[in-house]
Design a protein that fits this description.
The chain has about 400 residues and is α+β, with helices and mostly antiparallel strands. It is built from 10 helices and 5 strands; from the N terminus they run H-H-H-H-H-H-H-H-E-H-E-E-H-E-E. Strands 1-2-3-5-4 form a 5-stranded mixed β-sheet, covered by helices on one side. A hairpin with a 3-residue loop joins strand 2 and strand 3. The longest helix has about 90 residues. The protein is rod-shaped.
Length: about 400
């Protein structure tokens, strides 16, 4: 509706402008023609009438100047060879050609206007004292008027091209802004999925281990059942807290993100050991104890690596010992690997979707690192990541 209304307004405005130009062309052309002919009483009356008729027709023809600018300008140039009344309409047509057509067409029409005025002076010389003075003065005036019409038309064309260019840039910027917004939404969804997978997967794997133990050991003592139930209750509660934190991280300003760091790796290992997973930490670089500073993004990536590795070990190799090894030096690199032994039981384990490893690979790529994973020679599984560690 807005585009239609705007188009209607533009059409109405153009019609008003065209009507105004017809009136101006008539007044500016018919009045000088009448004065010219009054000063030349030797001319017959039919010449004056023919001049006025041509002027009226030429002025009315300006109504179609936008649709047929070049044809109209040529026709008015021809009429202006014997009609003074149509001269101003011919200048308006030249102006329109300067706005809408090529430089070659403008030059040809400008020369045609000047030539037609010269022919008019030969056919109907003016009432001046000297023929040479009449030619020089009138031709100089005509050249000035033609140049002004052409320059004005070119200025209008330049302004319209500038406005069209700005509108095109605005449209392109709007499309780019929409694409950026869609990309941001997509990245936000991926971030949410990755964070929920990393955080909730860790908690739910602990719940799964203890729930499976309760289902398997039917004859467990009340104390063992109570301890397992307490672990399940505590981790279910913490899973809800972690979910709230994930949502809060995505909504919080950049400077207020309560994200985990490399120092929290020790807490991960303590939790794993409390659920009967034997985990050995070998931190040769000293980053988990705070002995050496690591960039927050690098530390958070290493934390997610350990978290995913322990979660996969509990899920696919329950009861198998796990070794977490962290090495590296500032100015070189920071390497971490999680290796679990062969599962203690031969029962079939659930197949993973691989989403966690894909998320880890993406995290490593974003910080300029690399991820490696695969089976070990002893039947276990190894996940390793190499990260840059600026000095």
């Amino acid at each position: 509706m807005d585009d239609t209304a705007g188009t209607r307004r533009d059409v109405a405005r153009d019609r008003i402008v065209d009507g105004g130009l017809i009136v101006i062309a008539a007044l500016a052309g018919l009045y000088p023609a009448a004065n010219w002919l009054e000063a030349s009483p030797t001319l017959p009356l039919w010449v004056l009438q023919l001049d006025h008729i041509a002027g009226v027709l030429g002025c009315l023809a300006l109504w179609w100047r936008r649709r047929f600018p070049l044809a109209l300008a040529v026709g008015l140039v021809v009429l202006s060879t014997f009609s003074l009344s149509v001269s101003f309409a011919a200048l308006i047509a030249l102006f329109t050609v300067a706005v809408h057509r090529s430089a070659r067409a403008i030059a040809v029409l400008a020369a045609g206007n000047l030539l037609s005025f010269g022919i008019f002076l030969v056919l109907r010389p003016g009432p001046t004292t000297s023929w040479s003075t009449s030619w020089s003065m009138l031709l100089s005036l005509q050249v000035t008027v033609i140049v002004c019409a052409v320059v004005w038309g070119l200025l209008v064309r330049s302004r319209r091209q500038l406005i069209a260019s700005l509108r095109e840039r605005a449209a392109v910027a709007e499309v780019e802004a929409r694409f950026r917004a869609e990309r941001s939404q997509h990245e936000a969804r991926e971030t949410l999925a990755r964070e929920m997978h990393d955080v909730l997967g860790h908690r739910l794997s602990i719940l799964s281990v203890h729930a499976g133990a309760l289902a398997y050991h039917r004859g467990a003592s009340p104390d063992e059942v109570a301890r397992a139930s307490e672990v399940i209750r505590e981790n279910a509660h913490r899973a809800l807290q972690d979910l709230r934190e994930v949502i809060g991280v995505l909504r919080a300003p950049v400077g207020e993100l309560p994200l985990p760091g490399v120092e929290d790796v020790i807490e991960l290992i303590d939790e794993a050991q409390r659920v009967s997973t034997r985990v050995e930490l070998r931190d040769d670089s000293g980053v988990t104890t705070g002995g050496r500073a690591v960039h927050a993004t690098i530390g958070r990536t290493l934390y997610r690596l350990v978290q995913e590795g322990l979660t996969n070990a509990r899920k696919h190799a329950p009861g198998a010992p796990v070794v977490v090894r962290i090495t590296g030096e500032p100015g070189d690199h920071l390497a971490a690997e999680i290796v679990n032994e062969r599962p203690s039981t031969s029962s079939a384990q659930p197949a993973g979707s691989g989403e966690g490893l894909r998320g880890l690979a993406e995290r490593a790529t974003l910080v300029g690192g690399q991820l490696e994973h695969g089976p070990t020679g002893s039947g276990g599984w190894r996940v390793a990541m190499r990260l840059p560690w600026p000095a």
